[in-house]
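From the pipeline queue, job 12 of 40. The input is one protein chain; the requested action is below.

Action: predict structure.
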Amino acid sequence: MPMFDIPKEIDEKKDINDFMRKIQEETKPEKCILCGKEQTSFCNSHSVPKMVLKNIAKAGKLYHANKLIEIPVIDKEKGISNSGTFHFICRDCDSKLFQEYENVDALQEIPTEKMLAEIALKDILLMLSKRNQEKRIYQKGKQKGILQNVEVMEEIQQLDNKDYMDELNLYKDVLYKNSCNNFKIIMWKKIPCVVPIATQTLVALPKDTEGIEINNIYDMRPEVRMQNIHTGVFPMNDYSIVYAFYHRRDRLYRRLHHQMNCMSLEKKLELINYWIFKYTENYYISPEIQIVIDKDDKLKELSRENNGMPNLGYVTTMDFLFHKDEIKPSEVTNLLREMYAVKK
């Protein structure tokens, strides 16, 4: 998420929302990135299936990441129809390409190759959409003189886009060619309760559970490709699915795979819960547990980290003087535990 000083002309919430709507409109591609057909309008695609989000909503509303991050001018709560959406593919592709994993019955079983490819493809589409919007924000920020280090941000954005397009084609091939043995499942677990959080995302983890490097996120050489793990939490009507998997070519996750195979279910859930809040913003929380998350200062600190730095990456003198040790998975509320379920 690019960070910059909000100018006075867009310092009110309404103006921020208008600003982002314009960004979305200006960054819609001319053609669907999947089928290549020219489009005048694009599908309101959900990054987390709508059928999942509705199971934890309260009066049709969900908390977004800003409930914990607490940027004053950004909404903390939104309706299901506006939660985690992007406009990047046509309606025809959206309705046809994700049918297998967006299926209540199919999710209860060990996933097929096609299901995993659909999930991975959806994750990549979200990231490409976000990077496309960020590029436009960089341009506007540079024009107004309110965005610093634009060149560095643009270089990172270009490298990410290159990697994401490579993965997009990789997962399209799996879907269109019906190939087998493409993915390694670390975890796919059906939990007998409805957990209060939903997410579907990819993460380039920097290290494994023993602190050994997986991805050097600061290595900007063009030949270095970040390797991603796909993770998600799907609360259903009376159970939840928690998963983590990676493409077999991403061999840097082999050690982590072995480490997690040796863990108890409780420890696996604790770790995935930690990844969600530390490495992504694409999660949605049920308002039913507002009291729980309001009281957890560690969870808020973890959510505000940016590449391991506090305060969204804005490190002050006070941060150095009162440096705190890295927050551990066991120190934050594990919302995947049955005690926090919205329905058991």
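Job complete. The chain has one domain: 8-340.
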